[in-house]
Amino acid sequence: MAENNKSNLVNQEQTLDIEHVKRRLDMLDQRLDNIDSMVTAVAERIMNQPITLNITCPYCGKNIEITIIGSEKPTA
């Protein structure tokens, strides 16, 4: 009887651990989907219009301008 209760307790703990892992994997999947959406939005913007980055060199103080230009390919 004591062994039966002990095995039931172990099974419940394993089930809880599995559910916890499933929840964590679902959260990770959702975060990756959000990152994918942001990267896609940035890539689409780059393809539609130029993006300019203005950076100041920390050593010499000169301004550096980087422009990223894309050309949107027509879709069928």
Rg is 26 Å
Beta-strand fraction estimate: 15-25%
Write out the strand line-up for the largest beta sheet, numbering strands in chain order: 1-2
Main sheet properties:
2 strands, antiparallel
The secondary-structure class comes to: alpha+beta
Order of helices and strands: HEE
Could you give a quick summary of the protein structure above?
The chain is α+β, with helices and mostly antiparallel strands and 76 residues long. Helix content is 62%, strand content 16%.
Observed structural traits:
76 residues; alpha+beta; 2 strands; 62% helix; 16% strand
Task: Describe the protein's architecture and organization.
Helix content is 62%, strand content 16%. The protein has one helix at 2-48; strands at residues 51-56, 63-68. It has a two-stranded antiparallel sheet. 0% of the residues are buried.
Topology:
Layout (H helix, E strand, L loop, with lengths): L1 H47 L2 E6 L6 E6 L8
